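In response to the reviewer comment on reproducibility (Comment 2.3), we provide here a single inverse folding case reported in full, input and output, so that an independent group could reproduce the run without further information from us. The structure tokens appear first.
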């Protein structure tokens, strides 16, 4: 087996994408424990670096800004001067193989996306999107590693679970909404779900990110007359992604939408019930009794990314009966 001393990984996307990419990082560190691993990612996903102890360094390239070509040039110089002997890129931009070829890095691995990638990459990997995304990323290390796929895993210590606990995280994204992409049920449904869980004697935690503020305020308003003896409002009390991951690890069940917390739930091996609307659960959550996708079986779903780039106005796919969620909690 060839030994690699300095490895550059390139993976652009959100925090969820980085967590899905973690089996690549973990496998490389396992097989090349003395190698220095550097991750190139977008600054919006920088908090992921707090969730792994297998990175030696990282740097940001914001590929989706107006200065895309300046950012690509910055990536080129970082790769050129880093003395890397292996680079793995998950992107499909045809410029990336060209850029990596001229860095002189001996081993260059990426997806086979065009004749350019076939010519300029040393290992072309067939891109199979019709599988769990973490497995899709893991295909990139198969040319050099014989390991079997292992689930995403992040560095959060083991904690005792709060008895009968359920964590609710709406997972609303304002950026997605501004792009007319809706993937979460509304505040009224979340409130209804919380009340039913409390009535079942569950200890319910509520958390969320900055984008969830409007939804959280509506939930709080809807809970005014409820018995909140076993309700713990953790909104704005988890200061960063690591705090959220610890809270998820401490609860028995996480209920969320298709969002970054869902991937954290999987990566902390927490029972996760994820609500899916327009996206394809088969690509985003592993098939397991522990990781459950809740969906409304309408004919038009999944549609997002496959058939359209925005969600429709009807959103029938998000017309979820909260009882269908409750029955999986126990």
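Designed residues, in position order:
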């Amino acid at each position: 087996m060839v030994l690699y001393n300095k490895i550059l990984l390139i993976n652009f996307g959100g925090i969820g994408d980085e967590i899905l990419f973690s089996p690549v990082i973990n496998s490389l560190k396992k097989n090349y424990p003395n190698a220095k691993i550097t991750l190139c990612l977008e600054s919006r996903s920088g908090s992921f670096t707090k969730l792994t102890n297998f990175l030696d360094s990282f740097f940001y390239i914001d590929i989706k800004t107006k200065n895309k070509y300046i950012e690509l040039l910055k990536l080129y110089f970082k790769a050129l001067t880093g003395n890397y002997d292996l680079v793995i890129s998950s992107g499909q931009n045809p410029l990336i193989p060209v850029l990596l070829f001229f860095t002189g890095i001996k081993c260059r691995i990426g997806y086979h996306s065009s004749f350019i990638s076939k010519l300029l990459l040393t290992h072309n990997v067939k891109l199979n999107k019709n599988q769990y995304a973490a497995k899709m990323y893991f295909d990139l290390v198969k040319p050099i590693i014989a390991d079997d796929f292992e689930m995403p895993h992040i560095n959060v210590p083991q904690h005792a679970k709060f008895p009968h606990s359920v964590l609710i995280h709406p997972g609303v994204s304002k950026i997605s909404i501004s792009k007319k992409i809706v993937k979460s049920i509304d505040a009224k449904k979340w409130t209804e779900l919380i009340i039913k869980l409390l009535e079942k004697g569950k200890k319910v935690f509520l958390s969320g990110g900055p984008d969830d503020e409007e939804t959280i305020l509506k939930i709080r308003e809807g809970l005014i007359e409820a018995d909140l003896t076993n309700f713990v409002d953790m909104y704005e009390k988890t200061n960063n992604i690591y705090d959220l991951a610890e809270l998820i690890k401490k609860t028995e069940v996480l209920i969320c939408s298709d969002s970054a917390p869902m991937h954290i739930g999987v990566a902390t091996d927490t029972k996760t019930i994820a609500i899916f609307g327009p996206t394809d659960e088969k690509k985003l959550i592993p098939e397991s009794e522990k990781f459950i996708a809740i969906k409304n079986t309408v004919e038009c779903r999944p549609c997002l990314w496959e058939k359209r780039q925005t969600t429709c106005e009807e959103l029938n796919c998000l017309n979820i009966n909260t009882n269908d969620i409750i029955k999986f909690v126990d």
